[in-house]
Amino acid sequence: MIFDSWGGVLADGAFQAFSLAYTARVLAQLKRQGADGQPVPRIVFTKGGGLWLREMAALDCEVLGLDWTVNLGAARALVGGQVGSSAGGASANPGKALQGNIDPNVLFAGPEQIKTAAQGVLDSFGTPFQAPKNDPDATGPTHIFNLGHGISQHTPPENVAVLVEMVHAYSRQQRK
Fold first, then answer.
1. I need a surface site. Which of 20, 30, 107, 113 has the fewest CB within 10 A?
2. Where are the domains of the chain?
3. What is the pLDDT of residues 70-110, one digit of tens each?
């Protein structure tokens, strides 16, 4: 994961020159397979980078991390790809998986506010893509639930547990 906590404070033009260009350079030098021969997904996160999401979509990575300032549904429409299939020669555009984007400060709220915020993030992305049983090679937009930035050392662990339990329960419900 390339984690750029300061890219979003750059001006337009400076972001492309000093964050995007170097991120692309690092990605080009990363190994694409692990020691076991399996593909290693590459994730790029730029705090405050939502302004340049369209440009970041061209990066040679599989996942774009988003902070809490980005509307997840809009990001899905912009860079999340289309539902497609690689079977039968169809041209699939899987786009980028998206990771994030709940505000980590929500973890200082009460359990009900945490649950509401988590549900809001999951609802914003929309129905998760599931490959049909008759087309296991089908691809589509994917979301990896995560914080929109780092967690504070003062975060109550019990609040993290509330978040994890809510995400698991609600994600299962969405997939039914």
1. 30
2. 2-174
3. 999 999 999 987 766 554 444 445 689 999 999 999 999 99
Q: What is the DSSP string of 107-173?
A: GGS-HHHHHHHHHHHHHHH-SPP---TT-TTEE---EEEEESSPPPTTS-HHHHHHHHHHHHHHHHH
Closest CA to 50 of 105, 7, 93, 13: 7
pTM tops 0.85: yes
Residue 91 DSSP code? -
Quote the radius of gyration of the chain (alpha carbons, Å): 17
Bond preceding residue 101 cis, omega within 30 of 0: yes
2-174 belongs to CATH 3.20.20.210? yes
